[in-house]
Model the fold of this input.
Amino acid sequence: MKLRPSENLVLIHQNYFFKNDLFYLSGGLFGDSNLSKMKKIIALALFGYCQTGFSQASVLSESARISVLTMGPSQEELYSAFGHSGIRVYDSLEHLDVFFNYGVFTFNQPHFYLNFAKGNLNYMVEAFTYADYRDYYIEHHRFVHEQILNLTPGQKQQIFNYLLWNIEPQNQYYRYDYFYNNCATKIRDVIKIVLKTEVAFDSTYIKTNYTIRDLTDLYLHQQPWGDLGIDICLGLPMDKKASPYEYMFLPDYIESSFDHASNSVMGQPLVREKIIVYQPAPQKVPFPWFHPWIGFGILLVLATSLTWRDWQKKKLSIWFDVILFLTTGLVGILLFLLWAFTDHKAAANNFNLLWALPTHAIIATALILKQKPKWLPLYFLVTTLLSAMLLALWYFLPQSLNVFLMPVVGIILLRALINYQHRES
Done:
């Protein structure tokens, strides 16, 4: 982007890391691993209202365009599996071509890792050169779609003024939420905040009745382990039926929702023109042999063999039980902490705690003691019954549990049963 010296645009924020917003449990939180391949994109303090003033430069010309950009998902990493959204402001007369990105954060935030773990991570909006941003997605074979909005000159100026206000340091941060306040929803919110009732989204085109978990799963067929991790960590709130408005936490639905929106001031559709900037050819995806069904299936066979041998020899494979119950117990402790002590609202009321009991970690410790607690048989009996009930009611629970976990629950049932039988005999 060529900047005119008279506009006094300055390049700053070199310590900000460019990150993609994507969601789900990692959801863009660790950035693109291939960013080293692209130029270091330096954020623009676009018309930053410096002391010299920018009143002239902040006025768009009649030829200005404001667009919604949708970048396609990628299966290279979990954080890129959901795509990305942003707003482009293009004004050939003012030599502007800027991408406003609401999916940015910096590791320089105070207590970054603690805030990330607690679920109160601040994201920010930054302005980037559009060409560099576009080229990055093309390089990674991710589609780029541009929707040029059908706006009056006054509406364009209002949106641009809001974006300029939003990138000021005191205004640019917002509390990130995977499903309700992310890079996609912010695009919708900008338009609604600025234009209010002048823009209406017609949601009748959405005929599906998906939950938030269903919508997430649509993008994770090629990443079964990522899908499993999200399904384990996030609880019952993920299983609420999503309203058409809530579908827009996904960039694809931002695009389709804008396609079905109208501008009441002009009495016309909100999208004037749709440009397919880049559409990659479909790529064949190899079967992921490192798959949860395969991994947990092998583990189930091993556990079944060990249990049969233990029953015949009347001797327990304590080493296996310690590993099993310690691992599932630690998972349970993590899930409980996410639910009770963080702001991750989607982690509440997690039914995975029915198999990942935090008390399993205590049992793992008890198994290696010379003097075993007298209540161990009762604990294993309760665990056996709970596991059996969980498998029987798997498809009837209010929370949709990932089917990849069924072999894991089966293993817990087998080992709890053999431990109860051995200690009661």
Observations:
- The chain has two domains: 5-206+244-278, 292-424.
- Residues 1-56 have pLDDT under 50 and may be disordered.
